[in-house]
Amino acid sequence: MPNQPNSWSVPYPQADQHRHESELREAWERVCESGSYILGREVEAFEKEFAGYLGGGRVVGVASGTDAIELLLRALNIGPGCKVVLPSFAPSACAAGVLRSGAQPVFADIDPGTFTLCPESLSTLLRSPLGTGVRAALVVHLYGHPADWQGLCRVAAEHGIELLEDCAQAHGAMWQGQMAGTLGRAAAFSFYPTKNLAALGDAGVVATHDAELAERLRLIREYGWGRRHVSEFAGVNSRLDELQAAVLRVKLTTLRSGILQRRRLAAEYDAKLKDSRSVMPPVVRGGCEHAYHQYVVRTEKREALLAHLVQAGIPAAVLYPVPLHLQRAFGGSPVPLPEAERAATEVISLPLHPYLSEEALGSVCEAIERFDHA
Question: How many CA atoms lie within 13 A of 11 on its CB side?
């Protein structure tokens, strides 16, 4: 029987909730007493506060990160008959959001160091017959590491496509001093309960500096209403509710300090694992600041090491086990994507969140050291 998780491995969502417990209770009471539960003052305030955190622009609250992708593409008139490029090594939610817009996802390979969309692979795809009809690339800042934005911009400019960001795992990540979520035309964010900025359920936003795009998103999220009960065009019901917005307002106040703590813990992991025989710590590209939504190592002995960690009671995980181009739901790929396929067999996410103790982190590294010398 595997050991039970040690007392130090408190799951992140619960630890985060306990950290903010008194403020959350006040926020819930404020919403309940307001009598306004959908698209009210809390949503409006959070949209402004999160835009301020990003450094400006406009933010439109929606019901989830997947909805954020779908509604962004709808607002840009990217739908049936269009294609959207994704890195194949990414959450299936990314491809699901594209499909729901009516567009077809097509897949490119990743940079093996950072697990993000490879500019050279994107260029190859766009020059191939598969590139016909591509309108945009959805750039996923996977695990919290910014993609090679400069390289991707060169390719996008050459082929005339939009670059859009998926920042579901990248709250607080920086590229060349600029916040992830402000690099492209617009960005989709998720606030799922395990994210760096976490709601107590599903929630998301689209961030953009394009005022016209933001207004179109506001219409689409609520049935396409130009005025109440009168639809200008076909929309959906995807509204960030007041309770989740109130939760996010509370937690936004500690997002910066939480990310700094994630970086401190990641640096400790780096130092303790640099001489490991079995794992390779994550790479950080120059000019980038990692948000460390996940601390992901690579190993050629993935299944054996994962079993060893689980046996030791360590909550390690595999994100993600099957590349998108090999998943039946997304239509496959006519060409192999070797880096995505290799990453899917080698990655392990080690425990990392702002409430992880140094003792806990040391126990993880000791378990890996025992595996090294077994």
Answer: 6
Q: 3 pLDDT exceeds 70?
A: no
**358 in the Ramachandran plot: left (φ > 0), alpha (ψ -120 to 50) or beta?**
alpha
**DSSP single-letter state for residue 141:** -
> CATH code for 255-372?
3.90.1150.10
Strand ranges inside 12-81, DSSP E = 58-62
The answer to whether residue 264 scores a pLDDT higher than 50 is yes
User: Which residues face 297 on adjacent strands?
Assistant: 348
pTM over 0.90: yes
Q: Per-residue pLDDT for 210 more than 70?
A: yes
Residue with tokens 């996940």: 294
Strand partners, 344: none
Q: Name beta bridge partners: 175.
A: 178, 288
At 199, which amino acid appears? A
Pick the CATH number of 16-252 from 3.90.1530.10, 3.40.640.10, 3.40.50.720, 3.30.40.10: 3.40.640.10
Give the model confidence (pLDDT) of 337-360 as tens digits. Answer: 999 999 999 999 999 999 999 999
Comma-separated ranges of CATH 3.90.1150.10 domains in the chain: 255-372
Q: What confidence tens digit (pLDDT) does each residue in 276-297 have?
A: 999 999 999 999 999 999 999 9
- For the record, the structure tokens of 121 come out as 């692979």
pLDDT at 334: 77
Instruction: Please state, in angstroms and rounded to a whole number, the distance separating the CA atoms of residues 374 and 370.
Output: 6
Residue 53 and residue 69: Cα distance in Å, rounded?
A: 21
